[in-house]
Amino acid sequence: MKSNRKRAFAAAAGAAILFAAGGAAAFCGFYVAKADTKLFNKASKVVLMRDGDRTVITMANDYEGPLEEFAIVVPVPTVLEREQIHVTENAIIDHLDAYTAPRLVEYFDEDPCAPQIMYERMAQATAVDEAMPAPRSGAKSLGVTIEAEYTVGEYDIQILSAEQSDGLSVFLRENGYQVPDGAERTLESYIKQGTKFFVAKVNLDEQAKTGRTYLRPLQMAFETPKFMLPIRLGMANADGKQELFVFTLTRKGRVETTNYRTVKLPTGQEIPRYVKDDFGAFYQAMFAAQTEKESERAVFLEYAWDMAWCDPCAADPLSSSELRELGVFWAGGENEARIRPNPAPDVFVTRLHVSYDAEHFPEDLMFKQTGDRSNFQGRYVIRHPYQGQAQCEAGEAYRAGLPKRFDAEAQTLARLTGWSIDDIRDQMGVEAPPEPEKKDPWWRRLWGGDEQKDG
Amino acid sequence: MPLPMAILETPLTGALRAPGAPTRLGERARCVWAGVDPRHLQILILSSLLAFGLASNVIDTSLAHIAAAAAGAFAAQLVGCFMIASRPRLLSPLITTLSLCLLLRTDAALFMALAGAVATGSKFALRVGGKHLFNPANAGVVIMLLLSASLLPGAAWTTPGQWGTAFWFAALLAGAGFLVTTRAARADAAIVFLLTFAGLSIARALYLGDPLDIPRHRLQSGALIIFAFFMITDPMTTPDGKYARAAFAAGVAAIAYVFTYHLFEPDAVFYALALACAVRPLMEVFDRAPAYVWPRDAQIKKKQETLR
Lengths: 455, 308
What we know:
The structure holds two protein chains of two kinds. Chain A is α+β, with helices and mostly antiparallel strands. Chain A is 25% helix and 27% strand. Chain A has helices spanning 90-100, 165-174, 181-192, 204-210, 279-293, 320-325, 334-339, 393-417, 421-430, 444-454, and strands spanning 10-12, 17-19, 43-51, 54-61, 71-76, 85-87, 103-108, 121-124, 144-152, 155-162, 196-202, 218-223, 228-229, 242-250, 255-257, 261-264, 269-270, 298-306, 348-356, 365-369, 376-377, 379-384. In chain A, the strands form five sheets. In chain A, strands 3, 4, 6, 12, 14, 16, 18, 19 and 21 form a nine-stranded mixed sheet that branches. Chain A has a four-stranded antiparallel sheet with strand order 5-11-10-9. Chain B has helices at residues 2-8, 25-35, 38-55, 63-83, 91-103, 109-125, 136-148, 167-183, 187-208, 213-219, 222-230, 242-261, 268-285, 295-307, and strands at 104-106, 127-128, 131-132, 156-158. In chain B, α4 (63-83) packs parallel to α6 (109-125). The longest helix of chain B is centred in the middle third of the chain and has 22 residues, at 187-208. In chain B, 43% of the residues are buried. The interface between A and B is medium-sized, with 32 and 34 residues.
């Protein structure tokens, strides 16, 4: 019986949010999950195109549970028509994720005695893949009106309006969703604000036809004066903190939150070379430490860039057709792209990352677009010391400076991640560069002869 | 003649003590406090905030932007004073500069200079009944926001979230703000504004069934507290009568509430204050009171009269 229960997750956008449902990988939403299943919210990704009141939200998560148990409830500002709903491919979001990911850059010190050659290489932070879940429901007269019903891609979708949250939750429960108690109050608040609810679940027949074993991201297009992402529903029964990535695509410039601090992730720091082996662990530890440092109340800026280029590129900028798919209606279609090779006219991308819970994020995320077009990227640097024999004077000075530099790198890493400095030094010790053979100090030759004579 | 006097007679020198005035320490301290100009306190607090903001990366601006704002504000002040044949006063453009640097971000430094000039220029250009109509920094912010939405896309923006919502910071700001506004006899405006805004926000939360954490979070916003104590309380652009002033502050709060919660305008407070300032002369008709004079100016005047 339990297994028949649908899990719901809700995402909110514009006035719509994400209710989270779903197993191992829910959204910024609350799980409406089986009571006996220990669920853990992983990362959710939301792409928001915003221009004036026009909004397109794309929601992806990495749900991995049984498809029939997936459900999503998303508050939306209006009743959506069929054409306002779309299903897209994970690959596009993965591409956007890769393009904006914090990056590790590697430099090789040049021979201090000679001209320089520089190499650059980056590793990217791990991308999270996602799939999108959805629910199932029936019609009732509990003050709940089914405004519309569609099947889009592998999803069965209903747009509901409700008069009372208890009616809505009874309706959802009767249709097999588990609605946590805490969610009812939040639903009530949304209902009173005139919100409609987008409820989606997986149509197993359609899903089978696609031949996919995962769920694709759902998209909605609508107009609303609210530039926000509702996260409150998602916290109703959340187990601990939830990770959310918000990618915004705008024309004017960077996006920031108006009701929480938006903080730039530390960037441009030189860190020890061994981090290269597990950049993901470094990034996670650093993010956790920075969140802690900001009293767990900040939203972090990880990337802000004009989509037309990148430097260094963790991935190529998105093509016009990919941007269009994500809602950038002013990006030329494929035909136009052929004429104008410039991949993305006038699109500014912002990547925000937040780890949130109800205690520190009582309100939905409210955004604003700024005129700031300055570029920002989370970028970390490792520098490999020169390995050759630099026998000139500059080479000696270079070698003499290395221990200090390594120690500074260790200190930086400790500060960024909160890792123990001793552990870091241990790890670094293993990979310390071979010391060039010791030469006699200059003073040994200065009077050295005297001693011999005396003796 | 009055100019050198004014410079010498800073309140802290105690030079203003009338012959035969009390000399006991407490009395003397009271005399000194009575002579403290709220603008000096405000400059002290705003510049500390700016320094803190820059040091802690809360404020993402450059020295060039700050210098540009100052250049614009002081240039406009000098031109304005020259045109009305007044002695140049430098405290006001300094406060305007600091306020703009705390509240407004611009793309190019040139836009910051424009903001400074527009803000200070508004004092001379928009006057009703011998007083300037708009709070200069508020006028600067609003005009730059309107320009950004029209002629100069993306030129300027505010960062309401950047001051965070930490309780200790809000409390510290409110304490400092209370000190300044008490000195300027305008603490009531800040308090009426905050109470009205809090009342409306809490009522909304109760109606919606939202946890009270939501209005609390809104009210702890550092940006809101800065606005309440350092912008809405400007003695020159708030009504002089206390009833009109209370209505003014409550009106700003009500408009800000509607703009925030129903029109979803992140810069609600700035628009609300500008609207309220526009109707202020009307409000004053119903509650007439002597015009506010800065304590420093009042003392200079008094001293001049004594000398005469």
